[in-house]
Design brief:
The complex is a heterodimer of chains A (361) and B (300). Chain A has 361 residues and is of the alpha+beta class. Chain A contains 9 helices and 21 strands. Chain B contains 12 helices and 2 strands; from the N terminus they run αββααααααααααα. The chains are: A alpha+beta (361), B mainly alpha (300).
Amino acid sequence: MARIDLVDLAHSYGGNDAAPESFALKPVTMTWRQGGAYALLGPSGCGKTTLLNLISGIVTPSRGKILFDGADITPLSTQKRNIAQVFQFPVIYDTMTVGQNLAFPLKNRGVSKKEIDRRVAEIAHLLDLTPDLNRKATRLTADAKQKISLGRGLVRADVAAVLFDEPLTVIDPELKWQLRSKLKALHRELDLTMIYVTHDQTEALTFADTVVVMHDGRVVQSGTPAELFEKPAHTFVGYFIGSPGMNIVPAEVRGREARIDGHTIALTRSYDRLPAGGRIEIGVRPEFVDVEAPAPGLLTARIERIDDLGRVRFAHVRIGDAKFAARVPPGFSTGGNSAGLRFDPAHVHVYADSRLVEGTA
Amino acid sequence: MDKTVNQKAWFLVLPVFAVVAFSAILPLMTVVNYSMQDTFGNNQFFWNGVGWFKELLDPSTDLGGRFLASLGRNLFFSAVILLIQVPLGIVVALSMPRQGWTVAACLVILALPLLIPWNVVGTIWQIFGRPDIGLMGYVLNSIGINYNYVSNEFDAWATVIVMDVWHWTSLVALLCYAGLKSIPDAYYQAAQIDGASRWAVFTAIQLPKMHRVLLIAVLLRFMDSFMIYTEPFVVTGGGPGNSTTFISIELVKIALGQFDLGKAAALSLVYNLIILIVCWVFYTIMTNAGTERPRKKGGA
């Protein structure tokens, strides 16, 4: 149980002398609260597993420090860090039974037999492994093996944090849901800090209170799922989260107005001090743009196709050359292939060089 | 299940049958044939039934006495060889580097003894151990150890065993190294996370994962050491006395020295059978080693 602080932490597999741009993890400073459920979200190769391995001590950082409750543990080995980690593929000790597998982390730390039995029984119960406790672990299915791996991560009561490295990759979709809700329940029950690495936004958004989005070795935003959805701090967060992703289109922004393709859109805040020479874009989620019949005052777009997602329909349109997605309100039917777009000004954000610019009221 | 009947396919298998028949079955049948007969030379043969086999198992006869004594030596030799080479091979494999140029260097050095022909190995050690001109023999004697493999039984045995360890431990080490290399990093990382000691990593991960290659190593080393002929023949010639006369040496003496084809044939059949049985026993024990334990646990 601990608060984890990362201070200017960075890592390069090529050593400390490597070019700053080649670092797998660029310098990051952040805090993980005790008891939080975090998700590290990002595409493959964005450095999320590196960050996880740095926290658990499997990888030693090129730069920076890791603090557990204020104490610098950077030089400590994995064994001494009091961290549990579950890997992408199930790791099972072949010669042991399921029960012995679950007991292994406790046995290695000299926990008393009575306490081991109690914890193993508790975790086995939580993961529905009780009937298999005396079975050989190698005989089980991949799902069950991964449950054992999860169990070994959760069996220690005193860990500073439990780290999950895409633990549900090998699990069937049906069971994935069950296990994920189980993890969520375990998190509430055990009051553990959990950090969950994934490239699946649904997994991240349903599991975590705080989602940390990584891109190209950098932490681009950390916030609640709602924050990530409503106010992405980086255009990458905008289109990586959400389906379809956020519309990002080049625009001229002056004061309280943005001009796209010769058409003016009102903004709720004023943007007077945008960096000169920067690439200015506006970003708006498809959910906050409605398709209507073309009318004066609305931005005109060409409809390419309409996707019906069941609960909601999205129109894929073009404004000039730029692709754009917008919500199709119930009852709307196209009377041709051109349409007007109505923006919700409160949800139109301005980005300079891919980063969110806060306007002034 | 409408299978096309096409007996022509047998012609494709026929060459294999022919080759196996000529290379294995026919020669073996000749041996079976000889083992039931006695000869006094001149290509004259007399029916002896299972007489030779009875004699083989009866220690009071000359044949039986020599066979059982050399069988004992062989079993003792193989046991010592396995007890030394398997643990030593594992230790060597564990202490080998995992990456970098040293890997290639280690592999080449380890592979060198394996490339040397048996009789050359024998000659090397025969000279190496000589008290007058051999480096090892001379050094041992000059530091006060009375070492002479020609006259002392213990020295002869020690020389033959050390020679075999030198020659074949590499094989076990290379097999184990291959087994170790195939263990994914995640296992070691998980073990670190689980706080496993070096010993626990060895017993919980490395040894179980080496299980299959160890089975091969034990089988190969048993068969080879049980059939050993050339090296002790070159170094000690089976002496002093009969102390290092193994079954193969005895067999050659009977077959080519005394030209007792019947006795030799019976002996080789029994020899062959022992190797088959022991290998089968090893194989069964080692492949079932993983599966039997939980049943006992579950029952208890």
